[in-house]
Amino acid sequence: METRRVILSIAVSSLFVFSFVDGLSFNFYAASCPSAEFIIRDIVTSSSSNDPSIPGKLLRLVFHDCFVEGCDASLMLIGNNTEQTDPGNRSVGGYSVIESAKKVLEMLCPETVSCADIIALAARDAVGIAGGPMVQIPTGRRDGMVSLASNVRPNIVDTSFTMDEMVKLFTSKGLSVLDLVILSGAHTIGVAHCNAFRGRFQEDTKGRFTLIDKTLDSNYAVELMKQCPVSAMASATVNNDPETPMVFDNQYYRNLLVHKGLFQSDSALLNENSTRTMVKDFANNQELFFVNWSQAFLKLTSVGVKTGNEGEIRRTCASTNA
């Protein structure tokens, strides 16, 4: 109970600190494009109805954008050696949803709403659509001008990372260990390609996988090997959450406690007493997870933002205005 109070206290105290960070503000488009957030939510909702995988894709998209160059839509830029070309980003999806929203907004409010804000708001809406909390986030982000593949790997979490590696990376983004545990809960929805967790298995002489990572539940490992045999195509995927894959809930933490975290980086959260305690608290109390998610997501979408005269408002998300 004491740990829950501490976590709640941290979440509530962070609300004021991060509400208007870096020049962002609530209702930023109230005068310039009052229907912006409604339009984005409507497009995310309709896209998710047609493709249930969209919420997970949009949530992953915001992580991969914000951790590289900050939340500035640098991941949306297309071209040689841009962030999209790095192998770590080739499986990221949801771009078409962002472009669809941008196209409508450009017709109604030309050169007003940034792609960076669309990404943040779309991810926010995706969580709400999937059953999670609807987070109020400030807007006013501007789009970046730089997108380099070489910036990707040093700035995104690899699924094989240890706790120390994850903490180091999150700290460099101004995010705490608590934020790390909370934001890892994003794995409660979405899918992963088989190669993202194959390091937990080894191919034997008969061309079959055997489990070598003993931190993974053996029965769950058998199911994963059925879905991802050695012969599986590169496009093959499995659900991040084997229990409620399309619902944003606290099942991710329950899975961890029974050793059904899909990635090595998931299982690593149980390796230290402090993070294991957080996992248990969130597994036992979904409301606690949702309250803390709201604040951690607010911090995530404030990482490295560009405001004022920085960057630009792109006319199309795939290219700069130059």
UniProtKB/TrEMBL annotation:
Record: residues binding heme b: H187
Compartment(s) where it occurs, according to its Swiss-Prot or TrEMBL record: Secreted
Pfam families in the cross-refs: peroxidase (PF00141)
Residue ranges that the Swiss-Prot or TrEMBL entry lists as coiled coil: none
Cysteine pairings via disulfide bonds: C33-C109, C66-C71, C115-C317, C194-C228
Entry note: cofactor: Binds 2 calcium ions per subunit.
Site (Transition state stabilizer): R60
Catalytic reactions of this protein: 2 a phenolic donor + H2O2 = 2 a phenolic radical donor + 2 H2O
Described function: Removal of H(2)O(2), oxidation of toxic reductants, biosynthesis and degradation of lignin, suberization, auxin catabolism, response to environmental stresses such as wounding, pathogen attack and oxidative stress. These functions might be dependent on each isozyme/isoform in each plant tissue.
Listed name of the protein: Peroxidase
Naturally occurring in which organism (per UniProt): Arachis hypogaea
